[in-house]
Amino acid sequence: MFSLAAAVLMFASQPGAVTVQFTGLTPDKGKIAVQLCEASEFASFTCRRRQMITVRGSTVTAVFEGIPAGRYAVTAYQDENNDGRFARNLMGVPTEPWAFSGKPEFMMGPPSFDSVAFEVPVAGKSLTLKMQK
Q1: Beta 31-37 vs 118-120: how paired, if at all?
Q2: Is 14 a member of any domain?
Q3: How far apart are CA 72 and CA 18, in angstroms?
Q4: In a domain, 1, yes or no
């Protein structure tokens, strides 16, 4: 028979959800590609937790369920032309809206994991990110 303390402990150790609301999207245009990355995945931008969400309106919410406590980063871009790629100009400057969690530090190229990482507690985490362009 489970005691209340055992039930609370079991529930508390269950992985939580990471909920990310994106604002500043180009309304009703394309999809948003969202990734929740661990440090080992971040450099290659091929994170195993990813979603493509159709943009309806000017905000989109992504929910990643069952996320263990730890350090993560969110990367996202709005694929306005639905070509499956993050559009850039000849200089490599993005031409579609994008967002990173944290406070990205750009030198030449993408930010470091440490500058965009955030802690996810056992209970989960909610973030709001504004798309940049």
Answers
A1: unpaired
A2: no
A3: 10
A4: no
C-beta separation of 63 from 50 below 8 A: no
Give backbone dihedrals phi and psi of 11, rounded to 5 degrees, phi first: -65, -40
Question: What percent helix, strand, coil does the chain show, rounded to 5?
Answer: 15, 40, 45
pLDDT tens digit at each of 133 positions of the chain: 445 544 444 444 568 999 999 999 999 999 999 999 999 999 887 899 999 999 999 999 999 999 999 999 999 999 999 998 887 778 777 888 999 998 877 656 788 999 999 999 999 999 999 999 8
Report the number of distinct structural domains present in the chain. Answer: 1
Q: Is residue 80 part of a domain?
A: yes
Residue range(s) defining the domain that contains residue 30? 21-130
Whether 60 is covered by a domain: the verdict is yes
Gap between the Cα atoms of 99 and 73, Å rounded: 11
Place of tokens 């850039």: 88
Going by the DSSP 8-state scheme, the letter that residue 58 receives in this structure is S
Three-state secondary-structure class, residue 32: strand
